[in-house]
Write a structure and sequence with these properties.
This protein has three helices and no strands. By secondary structure, the protein is mainly alpha-helical. It has one domain.
């Protein structure tokens, strides 16, 4: 999504660069934080439960 900087799982230099970029750029970090909070607000236990039940029901019909 737009609330993260993607880095390869073994890219140590890329991870370092991404961390330094976020630490050094207040506008970037503030924007990422705001987008992350908006994204997190779309999740809830009720929604997770409803989606799980739907998957279980679909699987039981297969």
């Amino acid at each position: 999504g737009d609330a993260a900087i993607l880095v390869g799982p073994e890219d140590v230099d890329g991870l370092r660069d991404a961390i330094l970029r976020v630490i050094g750029d207040h506008d970037l970090s503030a924007g990422m934080r705001a987008r992350g909070l908006r994204r997190a607000a779309s999740f809830s236990w009720d929604r997770a439960a409803a989606e799980s039940v739907a998957v279980f029901l679909e699987a039981s019909r297969a």
